[in-house]
Amino acid sequence: MADLSNAPLNWQASATTTNPQISTSLPAEVVSCLKHARFLHLATCSDLFPHVSLMNYTYLPSTPFSPHPTIIMTTNPSSKKTMNLVRNPRVSLLVHDWVSHRPPTRAHDPTREGSPPPQATQSSLASLLLNMNTSALSSISATIDGQARLVESGSEEEKWCKDRHLENNTFGDQAREEQGVFGATQNAAASEGDGGTSCYIEGEEVRVVLVRVKEGRIADWKGGVKDWKIVTEVEGDDRGRHAMVNGIT
């Protein structure tokens, strides 16, 4: 098990393309992140002011409407992120496979009600699980850059996407406890009986946002960086040659 306090960090200069990987399929570690993460972070921008939103999402390797890897999200039509997407469809997504709770630090801070609570470190089993969470499971973050598309309201594609998104984001009691994150009142969420998912997926006014997964960056916990891009088998580069797949023509 890795010792994060003495990790062999290897920070890389990454202002430009770093360790590029070109392939006809999504990197396996990115697929794993997208399949197992609970949320992703959606960054939008308008008039040079960035905005970040915590989002439920659904990842699909393809849909009946597109053969490409796709991320489905839903949004309130009058939200800040929706207004930004209308003005500027360029987005950046961040998803990671490490636990989001801040682990205990060396210096005790009595003012911080962190997670896990103090009692979680009092048993050997809890300590083992905590160490696993902060080392074995803490691996990478994946940034996905692309353009978002608001699906046409009332379309067959919108209905299909909402159905898949609802299937992938119904968590019962857990979602009901988290409903405040998405702006639903407790009474409204409870009345739905589904953890409040209907309030942000099924409503007629809710808009579906799609992002085609094409390129991005993987950063690991040691500071390593790898850029990746998906190309089709017949897609050529700017000079008319066939694109290389992982460096092999």
Q: Which runs of at least 5 residues are low in confidence (pLDDT < 50)?
A: 181-195, 242-249
**What is the string of SSEs from the N terminus onward?**
EHEEEEHEHEHHHHEEE
The coarse overall form would be: globular
What does the average pLDDT come to? Answer: 75
Number of extended strands? 10
User: What proportion strand?
Assistant: 15-25%
**Radius of gyration using CA atoms only:** 20 Å
Helix fraction? 10-25%
- What structural category do the secondary elements indicate? alpha+beta
- Please report the number of helical segments: 7
Q: Gap between N and C termini, in Å? A: 38 Å
Largest sheet entry: 10 strands, mixed
Provide a descriptive summary of the structure in words.
The protein is an alpha+beta fold and 249 residues long. Helix content is 24%, strand content 25%. It contains seven helices and ten strands. The protein has helices at 28-36, 80-87, 124-136, 156-168, 173-178, 186-192, 198-201; strands at residues 21-23, 40-46, 49-55, 58-60, 70-75, 90-96, 140-150, 207-212, 215-220, 225-230. Strands 1, 2, 3, 4, 5, 6, 7, 8, 9 and 10 form a ten-stranded mixed β-sheet that branches. β2 (40-46) and β3 (49-55) form a beta hairpin. The longest helix has 13 residues, at 124-136. It is globular.
Q: Which helices and strands, and how do they pair?
A:
Blueprint: E1 21-23, H1 28-36, E2 40-46, E3 49-55, E4 58-60, E5 70-75, H2 80-87, E6 90-96, H3 124-136, E7 140-150, H4 156-168, H5 173-178, H6 186-192, H7 198-201, E8 207-212, E9 215-220, E10 225-230
Parallel strand pairs: 1-10
Antiparallel strand pairs: 2-3, 2-6, 4-5, 5-8, 6-7, 7-8, 7-9, 9-10
